[in-house]
Design the sequence.
């Protein structure tokens, strides 16, 4: 469990200021790194931590190199956070020797009419239904369901408990009860998509639900039927997107955010955590709608007053009219 | 994969204006339908799409029949959306040849003391615990758990990952720690209930948690212990109902809405998406409580001011008093 | 299915006013108890129910003993709710004869390099991955995943669908796409922790995600990577905690509440249901931030005005300046 700094540089590039034969035995944040750990500084706000860090070596941007070298060994790279991401990948592969093992676990239930690429990995107790297709290099971790006719692209990761292709929530009211609208579409997922634990993506009613290349979904997310999510958009945990909504490319949707159905979100839109999006958004930007936290007693007063807000506005107007 | 319009009418009724021998090969929304597709118009707001649609045939209400016939073949029915729902059912059964296959999948784990109706279908990797009962015509899709002594009625559908009858969250505080209250009740689910993927319904503490006939639950919903949900009520994705709350019949609860515990909701109440219900509702109606979406900078200003709202009201009052 | 009151007292203590040979055949709340049921009154607010209850015997605090005895048999104890919790435990064990059965269910998939204590119970269709460790007396109900190298302490209960140790949501932006940060840490869970159905706890990026002793998590909760939750803190259903946030000991987090990442919450903090915590909280107390429920038409007016709130404040200020 060790990596020489020289070997790291040989694999990933970067400008080493220090002994290439020196080894690191772990990766750690600046504040907890020991003298055996490699660390990194990506946000200049935390530069105060640099001086005091015990890290064996620190990855920094060129602008902070002098500061880092005053402390000890350093690697200068244009984007320390990206470089660090690649170090974690290298570490997993080379130092820990971990990686995907292609093949279908004997406990998985794969329908004979499903197509699983021989380089894909289907983990323990997964279910792949009739007509489903799993692309090259894709990994279903454990207890994942991919329903009938759903298609997963290449190099995707589906974490435990994911459900792809359950029926969308389609109901027609009839004499006080609900008539089921059978969900005849499927789910199509592009390449390089990662889907977090227990996240659900429903199949379309007529056409398909579509997740484009490079989309990243965290845990416990709900994607309704006929949603389309554009390339490289990321949704944080517990987000939800109701049916027939379209999200553009390169968006970020914060944790617990919710989008109602049948709306359209432009590219490069950023939604804050826990915000509810009730209308289409046509312009890139950062949007928020969250009740501010307060101590409970203060909240009670303000919340009660909020229910009279429109009336307060009218009273203000009246005062303004009567202004001498 | 084709259906003659005449056969459709023979099965489902409706007034055909067009050639009964003409066949349709798919179902599609008006705007994307090709000349081989059957489509429908249920909301008069979208009548503009009717004229331009390429659909082979369109299902419409009698009031729009002339308009539809000016374009091509049409089927007139009193409720086009309901009719369309039945078309999807027919399509699944007759054209796609899909349907439930009764029996227990060999990978499912069914306790010898559970009772599964011979016409029920228990899918791959489901768990049915001791004393549980699964009614006639009910389908557990895959990876569903039905815990000890829980009862599922007839013609229900439980989607992948559903958990029926996990312990309710019952804890008594004791010297800074929590003492478990064993959950001795069960879950009773009526007939014609549909439960979405990864939704959880907890068992009752003493009495049972009850889901009445015809209730529809979307994905990732949490139903606490001793909740009762009345007939034909529908909850959209990510909704949550805390313990001992009662919801009446014929309600709709929007996605991500949350109800606190120990309250009671009347029949015919409609709760908007993401609304938090903190008190009982005794009158039918439409209720909402959501922070409105705004661009982030505007939200920041308004949210900060909101924390002074009660004080602003007092200042307004003072001005009113001093009015000349 | 019966328990003599004298046997109950012998096991759990308490002061019986009534015949020790009398038997109870069920446990029930005051309002629904039959003359065969044992009941309890923990909240003096419900004392009116005491008089009318049909219960065979009622557990009460000493202050209510006279009132209870005027009605019939009673057990006086210092903390009736705690006592009732212990009655449910006794009932489950002695009357229903239910309890954990140690061992690994034959349908579970346990990696040969995982360590499962012989007194632990691994239920049907669970997955325990390489290097994971399950402590003494811990129960995994059914369909639980414990991923590589995650450690579960003693006497824990993990309900169906729980996912421990899926990858945290770690991504570095790169040229419009996302580079994966491999999650090299694990999850460490202390003793006496209960985790609700379909709840997810992600593994840490570098260091571990930590759940301390006695923590109670309800269903469908999301715990991000590198979160730490202090001893005896309880989170209700659908709560979410984003990455690297620390919650102190003895906190309660209401259902659907959300905490953003990289913040710190002191001990003894109580967060109301559905509140979003966007900053650190350094003082014990009760905090809330929820949009108040209203009928939809009233909400619409107030929500629209809320978007002008800051401007209203400025207009109020202007009026105040011009006051004669």
Sequence:
């Amino acid at each position: 469990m060790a990596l020489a700094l020289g070997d790291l540089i040989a694999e990933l590039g970067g400008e080493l200021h220090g002994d290439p034969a020196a080894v690191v035995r772990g990766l750690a944040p600046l504040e907890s790194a020991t003298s055996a750990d490699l660390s990194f500084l990506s946000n200049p706000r935390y530069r105060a931590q640099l001086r005091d860090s015990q890290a064996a070596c620190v990855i920094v941007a060129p602008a902070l190199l002098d500061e880092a070298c005053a402390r000890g060994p350093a690697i200068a790279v244009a984007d320390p956070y990206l470089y660090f991401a690649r170090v974690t990948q290298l570490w997993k592969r080379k130092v820990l020797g971990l990686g995907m093992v292609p093949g279908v676990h004997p406990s998985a239930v794969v329908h004979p009419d499903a197509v699983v690429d021989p380089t894909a990995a289907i983990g323990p107790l997964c279910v792949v239904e009739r007509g489903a297709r799993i692309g090259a290099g894709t990994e279903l971790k454990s207890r994942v369901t991919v329903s009938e006719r759903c298609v997963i692209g290449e190099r995707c990761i589906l974490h435990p408990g994911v459900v792809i292709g359950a029926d969308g929530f389609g109901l027609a009211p009839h004499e006080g009860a609900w008539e089921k609208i059978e969900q005849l579409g499927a789910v199509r997922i592009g390449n390089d998509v990662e889907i977090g634990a227990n996240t659900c993506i429903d199949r379309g009613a007529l056409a398909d639900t579509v997740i484009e290349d490079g989309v990243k979904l965290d845990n416990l997310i709900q994607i309704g039927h006929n949603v389309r999510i554009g390339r490289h958009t990321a949704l944080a945990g517990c987000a939800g997107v109701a049916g027939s909504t379209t999200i553009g490319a390169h968006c970020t949707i914060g944790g617990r955010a919710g989008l109602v159905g049948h709306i359209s979100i432009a590219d490069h839109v950023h939604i804050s955590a826990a915000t509810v999006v009730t209308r289409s958004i046509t312009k890139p930007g950062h949007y928020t709608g969250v009740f501010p936290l307060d101590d409970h007693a203060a909240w009670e007063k303000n919340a009660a007053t909020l229910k009279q807000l429109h009336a307060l506005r009218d009273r203000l107007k009246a005062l303004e009219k009567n202004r001498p």
